[in-house]
Amino acid sequence: MIYFLTKVFTSAILIAVISEISKRSSIWAATLASLPLVSLLSIIWIYTEKKDTTQIFDLSKDIFWLVLPSLAFFILLPILLQRGLNFWPSLAFSSLATMAAYAITLKLIA
């Protein structure tokens, strides 16, 4: 249980740090947020727990293909906001478009 809580605490700290940095500098927060920190931590946790490099290989390969549909969100959200659409509808539409992109990608790679 302590190991699980350590994983949760570490992940939560990263999110909180990025959120705090964004109050001072959006470019530095974006730089940190764009790093594959969740992927990196997941890979470390898997290796620490199982030493299973095959599972890490599979995870890395799948992450690569699933990064592509996530780009839909980061393309659409700023476009919609720049065009004057309110935040919540922009967020909702960008999220729905990203979910659709994920569904298409999953059908293609599965």
Description:
The protein contains five helices and no strands. The chain has helices at 2-24, 26-34, 37-50, 53-82, 87-109. Helix 1 (2-24) runs antiparallel to helix 2 (26-34) and helix 4 (53-82) packs antiparallel against helix 5 (87-109). The chain is flat, with a radius of gyration of 17 Å.
SSE blueprint and pairings:
Blueprint: H1 2-24, H2 26-34, H3 37-50, H4 53-82, H5 87-109
Helix pairs in contact: 1-2, 3-4, 4-5
Can you give keywords for this protein?
110 residues, mainly alpha, 0% strand
Produce a short descriptive summary:
With 110 residues, the protein is mostly helical.
The CA-CA distance between the termini, in Å, is 33 Å
Please provide the count of β strands.
0
Radius of gyration: 17 Å
**What would you call the structural class?**
mainly alpha
Q: Kindly estimate the percentage of residues that lie in beta strands according to DSSP.
A: under 5%
Give the overall average pLDDT.
93
State the shape: flat
What low-confidence regions span 5 or more consecutive residues with pLDDT below 50?
none
Number of helices: 5
Helix amount: over 70%
**The biggest beta sheet, please?**
none
Order of helices and strands: HHHHH
